[in-house]
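#data-curation
PF: Archiving a pair of folding outputs for the training set. Convention for this channel: one message per protein, sequence first, structure tokens after, nothing in between. First:
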Amino acid sequence: MIYKRGSIYWTKFQHAGRMIYKSTGQTSSTKARQVEARLRSELAMGHYGILERKSIPTLAQFIRERIEPKVKEPDVENGEQRRQKRFRWLRTALKPLSTHAIGRLPLDKITSEHISDYGIDREAERLTIGTVNRELRVLRRILRLAVEWNVIEKSPKIAMAGNEPFRAPLHKV
């Protein structure tokens, strides 16, 4: 199937159980169909050079290599303070996520079931619902960053562990 994004045609089809989305680089629908046919035939013949599979890091590797450098202490002299502030809230959950079994999974193999198991395991360690939900929010942000940075194609849905207890706001009298 070809479809248009802006002025360029893209192709979408399934090969070996995997959806392939690829730009044809063409503005003509006829030429785009020819490019799609060539791509399908090359894949069928085993010429996978077109779609080389990137090595997907594990969650722990991704945290260590891509997230931790962004949450390190800011270098105020180089003007990094504002950029660092955006990632500071992630710090508290990085170690539990890296050391748990979910940290050993490649990012593209993490499913909603694995995430649910992580939440259950953390609750079994007698952590509060708020703490578990905070870690799940961090995991959700990490996976969305992986999608944004083109490490993985999509991120799984993450359900929170439950309702956090209501806290009454403190009012000054």
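PF: Second:
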Amino acid sequence: MRSPGNSTGQRVPLRERGFESHTQRDGMKGTLDLKQEHGKIKLMLRILEKMCKKLDSGEEVEPKHLDMAVEFIQGFADKCHHGKEEDVLFPIMKEAKVRGAEDLIRVLLIEHGMGREYVRAIAEAVNGYKSRDVEAPTKISQNAMKYVRLLDPHIDNENTTLFPMADRSLSDVQQAEMTEGFERIETDVIGVGRHEELQKMLDDLADRYMSG
């Protein structure tokens, strides 16, 4: 999807439409933006662990909280964050022929796909949980923990290997292209204001499951 244009058909910069991306606002490289998003995803992984612990011990978890967790993962971790990687960062690195990037990206894409399968299974099990399916708590916990065990090292690998590789190899022009691509994801795919809605979900769940 293309961004809105002016009367001449030219693309109107985001800041002229009253919006600045998180990258623009902080004046940082795109990879740092992704690292900061990793921090939020890691917090959700810790929340999932707390939810699974409750389910495994026979305690109830509010269905609304499970829905919020799934919505955050699908909307933020996958659609927003993985979208930035798959549609912007990975193609730029491949086009720049960054040494070692292609093999690493192939592995990361496989892991993204595995994560989506686990999240689909979690969402399906949450629906069963609402219908009092006795097997649903186990299915939620099993798939959520598979997701956690997949994403923790996946994130670490990107933080310590992929992102430094990009920062060493990409030119200022390519970094700027990355930033602009991230802005398009934020506005045209996610939608203005949606990032903040997802952040509030994360904050609310953290207050409930990570305090004390």
